[in-house]
């Protein structure tokens, strides 16, 4: 129905418009974890270059990364930007996985505790914030956690679904309230679709006319409102 809003409406419209996103692009759950660290404050194309370096060096495992010197690892991560900071963060994550006994098969972390406890543990790792932790939980561990990012906030605000002052936790809770508990696939697809929309349409200077959510969007409706005549 034109003008209808809500996160499940958003999901339906975007899924019909864009199709499956197959996100997160990676060859293993550990590669997802690495990408979640490296994507902080950079474009995905830069992450891909760094991951290509790691793969070429046969260093896409916990053991291999922990064997490298910090300088050597930093050079491999250089394309990702802020590479010395990210080197320390990736090493911290690898040490965490080793300490938990899942360094060989990192996705087994999902079996060690309930989601809230796993999330707390990840947030205690140096350099792992809420978005990074939730990306690991959803995309690497296949657990039902909605990821919130800058695209989510921008799109939700323009649609009239989110207020600007909300915290990460409040935004996440607002979206989760509309989703079926335990549905990993919808959370995965919805976040990926929002990323696609944010990159190609709902930019800082949005392309409202061609956006698939045009008729559902409060911001677009305001942009299209006829200008009132000026009175002398």
UniProtKB/TrEMBL annotation:
The keyword Mitochondrion does not apply. GO terms for biological process: base-excision repair. Keywords: 4Fe-4S, DNA damage, DNA repair, Endonuclease, Glycosidase, Hydrolase, Iron, Iron-sulfur, Metal-binding, Nuclease. Pfam families: HHH, HhH-GPD. GO terms for molecular function: 4 iron, 4 sulfur cluster binding; DNA binding; DNA N-glycosylase activity; endonuclease activity; metal ion binding. InterPro entries: DNA_glycosylase, HhH-GPD_domain, HhH_base_excis_C, HhH_motif. Residues 38-200 form the HhH-GPD domain. Belongs to the Nth/MutY family. This is Endonuclease. It comes from Acidithiobacillus ferrivorans.
């Amino acid at each position: 129905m034109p003008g209808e809003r809500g996160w499940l409406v958003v999901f339906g419209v975007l899924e019909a418009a864009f199709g499956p996103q197959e996100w997160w692009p990676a060859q293993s759950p550990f590669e997802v974890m690495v990408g979640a660290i490296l994507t902080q404050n950079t474009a995905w194309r830069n992450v891909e270059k760094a991951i290509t370096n790691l793969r070429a060096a046969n260093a896409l495992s916990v053991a291999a990364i922990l064997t490298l010197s910090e300088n050597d690892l930093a050079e491999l991560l250089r394309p990702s930007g802020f590479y010395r900071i990210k080197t320390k963060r990736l090493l911290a994550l690898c040490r965490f996985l080793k300490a938990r006994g899942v360094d060989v098969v990192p996705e087994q972390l999902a079996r060690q505790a309930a989601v809230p406890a796993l999330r707390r543990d990840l947030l205690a790792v140096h350099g792992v914030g809420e978005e990074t932790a939730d990306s690991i939980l959803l995309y690497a561990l296949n657990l039902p956690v909605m990821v919130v990012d800058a695209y989510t906030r921008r799109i939700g605000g323009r649609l009239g679904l989110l207020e600007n002052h909300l915290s990460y936790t409040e935004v996440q809770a607002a979206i989760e309230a509309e989703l079926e508990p335990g549905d990993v696939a919808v959370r995965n697809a919805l976040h990926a679709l929002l990323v696609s929309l944010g990159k190609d349409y709902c930019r800082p200077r949005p392309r409202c006319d061609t956006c698939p959510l045009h008729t559902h969007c409060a911001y677009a409706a305001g942009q299209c409102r006829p200008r009132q005549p000026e009175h002398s």
